[in-house]
Protein 1
Amino acid sequence: MTLTLLITFVVLILAVGLFIFRAIPGVRAYFDYHGKRLVTCPETQKPAAVDVAAGEAAVGAFLSEPTLRLKDCSRWPERQGCGQDCLQQIEAEPENCLVWKVVSKWYEGKNCVFCHKPIGPLHHLDHAPALLGPDFKTSEWKDLRPENLPGVFSTHQPVCWNCHVAESFRRVHPELVTDRAAEARRIW
């Protein structure tokens, strides 16, 4: 009886080890392909926002090779039957076409239009910087459609979070804002 128990235990350990060995590429594929991406549509040569079916890619990587397929596209449902040739861009550079990465690269090295402080590198847990439009209204980049971001970046200017909040308050509640000329500080 102990020999049977030992064999069962060894087989169980091998099965768990094999599962973990195959699960690692699956988890990696899921995180590689999870998230909204910005690609150039091969049909129109215009930006399109897409989501890859990351769960299917993870299962494919667990079983053998990840197979990429679009889960969503900003051009759907009108063009849902397309050949999904944009996936080649994602396969070539999965990290660089993430919307977050595109936005982060745009803000890199820029200063706030109001306070002139550097925006600094973006972090997921920080407040997101905003944009100042030609209409002199600030808006968060997260509120815009991802496929419109490349065009917006050519017409808008960077704004830090603090100035965005102040300007939004000024726009929404002008009756509560008093503008004063800057005074020299007195030292007592």
Protein 2
Amino acid sequence: MTANISRRGAMVALASVTSACATAAPPASTAAPPLSAPLQPMSRFVGKWKGTGKGDPGNSTVERIYTPVLGGRFIEVRNTSTYAPQAANLKGEVHDDVGYVSFDNVRKLFVLRQFHVEGFVNQYVATTPDFTGDKLVFVSEGFENIPASMKARESYTFTSATAFEEVFEIAEDGVTFQIYSRNSLRRV
């Protein structure tokens, strides 16, 4: 009988602890880590941004968040571009993508990897080791789920500490880059 009570008591205690753990509030979120030294030039992006875009898919509103992650060795970029129904895009659409900026210590250059809701992945490398003035340009070096003949370029130009312009260009082999979209963002 004592063994049954002890077993029953242990099971009740275990059930109580399990229940308490399951209903306990999750731990408070911690602040983003500081950026690693090589990523410090990218700190001007960190934060929340809103703006507008224009381009082949039409006019859009843009929301973006840049957050240091994984010990500050990466910057996570979460982007949503919303296109209302319009002549250039009759159905309208919401485009989401997630990106990660890192610093390649071997090449001494920034690398940007983007994962798009449509299923394609772009990998870019910066054309210079840092901003040239207030401009930083990334050129594609690989894609997933896009023909290998495609090339892309992303250019970021800061017009002030609280505003930047992003130009996305595409090209097929042997053809010059053409602007696909242009976004103007302001810090919020």
Protein 3
Amino acid sequence: MNWWETVRTAIEALSSRRLRSALTMLGILIGITAVMLSVGLGEGARVSITNQINSLGANLLTVSPGATGRSAAFAAGR
């Protein structure tokens, strides 16, 4: 079986089952569109959140878990 015979067989199969071929192409298009929209929305959300965090400025108070020094004794109830 050569390459041209394979192509001819594929075209015959597609033309004999038009509805199945159309539904398959529609499913592929819907799948590709869904993936593109998901990636686009995720990237847009990432950019939006990054811009919101960057707009807060550099004078932020950083809070880390744990306690040291005098506040540790106060937190322990002493």
